[in-house]
Design goal:
The chain has helices at 15-23, 60-64, 81-91, 114-127, 144-148, 150-155, 173-184, 204-215, 226-231, 239-251, 262-267, 274-280; strands spanning 6-9, 30-35, 48-51, 69-72, 94-98, 132-138, 158-161, 167-168, 192-196, 202-203, 220-223. It is an alpha/beta fold. The protein has 2 domains: 6-138 and 172-196, Rossmann fold (3-Layer(aba) Sandwich), CATH 3.40.50; 144-169 and 199-258 and 268-285, 3-Layer(aba) Sandwich (Rossmann fold), CATH 3.40.50.720. The strands form 3 sheets. Strands 3-2-1-4-5-6-9 form a 7-stranded parallel sheet, sandwiched between helices. A two-stranded parallel sheet has the order 7-11. A two-stranded antiparallel sheet has the order 8-10. The longest helix is centred in the middle third of the chain and has 14 residues, at 114-127. It is globular. The termini are far apart. The model has no long low-confidence stretch (mean pLDDT 94).
């Protein structure tokens, strides 16, 4: 086993990247963040912040200088993957990629969509890059509730949503980050893949009701058709994303959510429940 000593975090200003940075100080490692605009990144003082852009390979060499392991979040266009990985492979030895449950035989995760196609491409290129690799495969995020249901809950007591009976196992980003930190710090995880979920299979109805209970409110939860939902989409959700969510939910009707114990195995603590997550984020559901 080899313990790494310098880590580069991409996606450092995002939810998971930020959580990783908050948990890494306890490891005593040297941490660097790649960001597009260091002046407004607002990252902790122990983090070395350098300007870089995964779509501009020439900006990556300075960020990668002396780096042993890279945490990679990829949301950029697919055509930029190969040039970026070529630069990463020239400097780093290991890469931990935030992927998706591409190989999990559950219909919720097997519906074709652009994000899946892009993740598959990134994985193939990583596997042929010469880098040691670890793939993290989180399922549905509990934080989706902030975009999906918080606008309706802040506006009133009615939540209209399709496929209310379909269950998922929402995971707290803090638990994803906890597993990521351990894989970043330990070579024993090279060549491995980990599916990460929350600890419970909960229907979408049960998740919304949990939020209402935390808020002390009696929410009226109404089932609507996929067509009505598409016409009432929240502004942040592109229609193509909405359509592949509908496909995933439709395919998962009648099946319990896929649940793993990976978080507990890594941390020694049970993964946070959706109730814990909702309690921690209650203020964001209040008007």
């Amino acid at each position: 086993m080899v313990v790494v000593n310098r880590i580069l975090i991409t996606g450092a200003t995002g939810n998971i990247g930020g959580q990783i940075l908050s948990q890494l100080p306890a490891t005593g490692l040297q941490v660097r963040a790649l960001v597009r605009n260091p002046d407004v990144a607002g990252l902790p003082p122990h983090v070395e912040v350098l300007r870089g852009d995964l779509t501009l390979p020439e900006t990556l060499d300075r960020c990668l200088d002396g780096i042993d392991t890279v945490f990679l979040v990829w949301v950029a266009p697919a055509e930029a993957v190969a040039p970026a990985l070529e630069r990463i492979a020239k400097h780093a030895r290991r890469i931990v990629f935030l992927s998706a449950p591409l190989k999990t035989a559950h219909p919720l995760f097997q519906q074709p969509n652009p994000s899946r196609t892009r993740a598959e491409l990134v994985e193939r290129l990583i596997e042929t890059s010469g880098l040691q690799w670890t793939f993290l495969r989180p399922g549905m995020f509990a934080a989706n509730a902030l975009g999906w249901w918080a606008p309706q809950i802040r506006a009133g007591d009615v939540v209209r949503w399709p496929y209310l009976a379909v269950p998922t196992a929402p995971i707290d980003v803090r638990d994803v980050a906890a597993v990521a930190v351990r894989t970043l710090c330990d070579d024993a995880h090279s060549g491995t893949e980990y599916v990460l979920t929350g600890p419970q299979s909960l229907s979408q109805f049960e998740q919304i009701a949990t939020i209402g209970s935390v808020l002390g409110r009696s929410l009226r939860i109404e089932e609507i058709s996929p067509e009505d939902w598409l016409s009432e989409l929240p502004g942040f959700l592109p229609s193509f994303v909405a359509k592949y969510l509908l496909d995933a939910w439709a395919a998962a009707i009648g099946q319990p959510a896929f649940v793993t114990s990976t978080v507990a195995e890594f941390t020694g603590l049970p993964a946070r429940t959706f109730l814990e997550w909702a309690t921690n984020h209650a203020a964001q559901f209040r008007a």
